[in-house]
Amino acid sequence: MTNGLRTILPEILTKAQQDSIGIYPLRAWRVSFQQSQMITLGIKNNVGGSVYRPPTYKSSESASLFLVWKDGKCTKTRMNTPAEGKVSDWDEQLKSWRLAAFADPYAQEIPKPAVFPQVQLASEDIYKVISRDNDYIFQQQERILRNHPAGAQTNASIKAFWGRNFLYTSTGIDLDYEESRYALSWAFDSQIAQTFAQRRLPTGQEFLELWQDSIAKYSAIQEAGTPISERTLVVLAPSVVEQMIGQYLVPNFSGEKIIQGQSKFKKADFTKKKEVFAQSLSLEINPLRPYHWESYLVTDEGIPATRTELALNGRLNSPYLNVKNANRWGLVPTAIPAGASSIILKSAKQVTWQQMLSQIEDGVLVLSVLGIHTQNPVAGNFSLSAPTCIRIRQGKLAGKVSLRINGNIWDVLQSENTAYAQSPLYDEPYMLVECIAENI
Amino acid sequence: MDSEKIKEIVKATVSGFKQGYLIVRAQKHREISLRYNNGQIESLFTGDESGMGVQAFTPEGASGFASGNVLSLERAEELAQKALKFAYLNQGIDCERNTNIFTVEPTVADVPSLAKFSFDHFSPAELQQIVSEIHNRLLTIKIEAGSVAWQTVYRQLEDFWCIGRTDGTLVSFTVPRAVLLHQGTVRDDGYGQSFSVKRSGVDGEILLAEQADRSLHLQAEDKARFIHRVCKAPQIPTGSYPLVIDYGLAKGLAHEAFGHAVESDLLEESVLGLEGKLRTGMVISKSGVDIIDGPLERDWAYQPYSANGQIRKTVAIVKDGVLQQGLGDIFSAAKAGMEITDAARVEYFGSVPLPRMTNIRLLVKDNIPLSNTKNLDQDIKNIREALLSRGMLAEDYHFLLLGYCGGQVNSRTGDFVFQCDGAVNLADPELTVYQAGIFSGKILAVLEAVNYSLGSAQYDAIGTCGKAGQMVPSSGGGSGYIMLEKNENVKIGGSAND
Question: Which member of B96, B410, B495 has the closest CB to residue A49?
């Protein structure tokens, strides 16, 4: 970022705040700057660096502003670094921001400086990949190209991200921190997909285990599986569980949606700690986990990262709340989800995936579903096509089947019969669920 | 920065760069969005962003890409060098090379905005007043029991694009878009379901039109009452049925089942391809069925030129039941055995272009006329009467599916799905309402089932397509409601226990 804008903007806002005779007096303000760089490589149909997935370099510099004017109105806006590196007429700029102000009594509060937690968000290794050693990322691409299963149409994407963030407020927050991300994903025949996404590089062992897991699943779908029956146990793979969390849990725990009548839950359900899930199940957001993709140091508004329990032992505990909605609820701001994986399912009866798998005589593993984003999050019903599933016979993966699955996520999460199994490879658990499944 | 200055930067970047071939895309994006919840403003956001993406090619056809969000000649030259460096790194790992762009004729064009009102015609304060009035009227809607929570979103966007190439191409165009969306969440006795209705155009004129005719308000009112019935309704038993789908679902069917499957970059893994080539000439439906894709002026997904600076053509994907043409761009059309039409689109300046749809529509020649009532209940009755009077109504179940909620396709397996808000059994004189469950089918079978359309054509069903993670406006429709006869490869439902 042009450091000029980063320096001048807080000065301009402070002046507008202090200028008691100004035409557009400000009461408070918050401004965040982000500088980022990202390198992406891709494989399409077994070929690296095609015209659709060439090596790419992206740099971005932007500022987000939240302004509270003397009359209590607010302005939310985003701007680039101007082409010339400076804004020629700040009075005009302030005028245009003032024109976009709106009344929002709950949002006027700008957080005060606080003690920010130590969260590991930045890996120097990723910085090196972006700034000095592009070879690492090309070597990773080459490894996938060299080792993918014969006959498999392989697609892949590799992304390395580095960012530097600044947060300044009129209340005195002055924060400067770095972050990194590394995402690696591949898919065989558009059916078996695997992803690593963290704020650090994968270890050699992690890559190997993820690769072997995807190879084993790809091998298992080469044969046709026997059709399922009514007795067949249905297990959702972690990637499907993650999609379900994103579609159903994330929106329904939003403090804004709850208070506006757009969620399954009501405000009173939280006050009464209503039991809506199995007693063994708890849900939480934890942005403090080292190097996790969804971890953060501070929210966009300046609230330090903290752990929030959304549900405890089956009972609703807290929605997630930004500053505005915390004011509406009369509570303090909470952790904010930064994606589907942010909500962690914790079951008191959780086993390992190997334990669960070994105990299933007649089951099916749903690897992917089509259309989950089309499902109604409030009702919780799901009716999904699952073209790629693997039969489980006597604890072993055994052949491909295609299914349609129907059920209701709220019933699934409430049932004590739903079982959870953790694998070190994934953040989300495997879930053995009661639903209606049929062969297609 | 004004448009002329942006054009100068693009022109100077491509003409001054001698080490390789460049495609430069500069974008200036403006946006204002307002959101209201149950009578109160929730948010007003403004954004003003710009940037450029540079795609560089070595003489051998290896490519690299670099983007940044500072619009200046100095920055553009840096990006060009970075993109070329990546192109050579790419060449060093034996990447797939593509020299097709070197053979294209240069184009010079400048397409002005089609908006009647400029982006700033309505001040944010005026927009607040108008949208607030439109939103507050929703609060007067009553349903039989329970309650409806209302949200209204108004988004107004303007994208100026300038695309330059080393061959002298300099194409610029402005795409304005506006949408007014009402979302309702109906709750009654522990049940709940949300829905949305939309009205789109190119500028604030849609707000004035809505104030005048209340068309979206009436849709929202009809839909709220319908969804209230859906909330407590039984699910359709899983199975294959004769169906009638609304024009939004017709768009979804054409988009998911056919549009993606004929995009030239996906032909190698599409069931509509054979050894990477489009299966041109393949009969996939009865005669009289067409699928057309192409830009329509003042449409949500309008784009006059491709992201590579070539004119976007209208394509008959299916003509009279025969697979005829695909959505091809300069880089893969020939390989996929199709014409360059040029379908390349990008989400923003930092994206690499891919072949994409614009407005896709499913047209059926045999049409049963319906009077235009603009009332959902009356439409449903009219459809039943039209089918009954012609002896075309099934005995037990003949479902009308309403309200497109999105879809997905796997072009490799040929599976596609889409979801709707609810269904009505037209065969039942009581017109019983059902929860629909997902509509799933096989690409190669579904069009065989299409036989008639009912009522008049509508092509303004809008959405956002997320191919390869790039979110691009999409739209389309059908020549009215579309009829599908029972087909074992097209299923809907639901609970197998019902």
Answer: B96
Integer Cα distance of A160 and A167 in angstroms: 23
- For residue range A52-65, what is the model confidence (pLDDT) as tens digits? 999 999 999 889 99
The closest CB to that of B95, out of A48, A84, A436, belongs to A48
* Residues of chain B with C-beta less than 8 angstroms from the C-beta of A387: 410, 413, 415
Between β-strands B21-37 and A362-366, what pairing exists: parallel, antiparallel or unpaired?
unpaired
- Whether A85 has a pLDDT exceeding 60, the answer reads no
* Assigned token pair, B442: 């096989």
For chains A and B, CB pairs below 8 A equal: 249
Contact call for A56 and B352, based on CB within 8 A? yes
Tell me phi and psi for residue B451, to 5 degrees: -135, -30
The angle at the Cα of A185, spanning A180 to A189, to the nearest 5 degrees, equals: 170
Does residue B417 surpass a pLDDT of 90?
no
Kind and range of the H or E run holding B170: strand B170-188
Residues of chain B positioned with their CB less than 8 A from the CB of A81: 69-70
3-state class percentages of chain B: helix first, strand second, coil last, to nearest 5: 25, 40, 35
> What value does the mean pLDDT of chain A take?
93
Strands ordered across the beta sheet of B289-293: B322-323, B315-319, B289-293, B359-364, B472-478, B458-465
Query: Going by C-beta distance under 8 Å and a sequence separation of 6 or more, which residues neighbour residue A79?
Result: A62, A63, A65, B47, B48, B49
In sequence order, the 6+-apart residues with CB closer than 8 A to the CB of A396 are none
Q: Which residues of A touch B128 (CB under 8 A)?
A: 102
Domains in chain A: ranges and CATH: 3-210 (3.30.2290.10), 221-244+348-439 (no CATH), 265-345 (no CATH)
Give all domains of chain B, ordered by start, each with its CATH number: 3-231 (3.30.2290.10), 243-493 (no CATH)
Query: E strands along A206-361, which residues?
Result: 233-236, 281-285, 308-312, 315-316, 343-347, 351-352
End-to-end Cα separation, chain A, in angstroms? 54
- What does the DSSP 8-state code read for residue A107? G
Chain A residue numbers with beta carbons less than 8 Å from the beta carbon of B41 are 102-104
Give me the residue label for tokens 């270890």.
Answer: A203
Residue A1: the pLDDT is 46
Separation of alpha carbons B411 and B268, rounded Å: 10
pLDDT tens digits for B210-241?
999 999 999 999 999 999 999 989 989 889 99
* Mean pLDDT to the nearest integer, B365-377: 91
Residue of A nearest to B488 (CA): A440
CB contacts, 8 Å: B406 with chain A: 371, 373-374
From A373, which residue of chain B is nearest by alpha-carbon distance? B406
Answer whether residue B496 shows pLDDT above 80. no
Quote the CA–CA distance of A294 and B51 in Å, as a whole number: 27
Measured in angstroms, the CA of B449 and the nearest CA of chain A are apart by 18
CB atoms B412 and A190 under 8 Å: yes
Q: Strands B170-188 and B108-111: what pairing?
A: parallel
pLDDT of residue B497: 40
Are A83 and B72 inside 8 Å of each other by CB? yes
**DSSP-derived pairing of the beta strands B243-245 and B399-410:** parallel
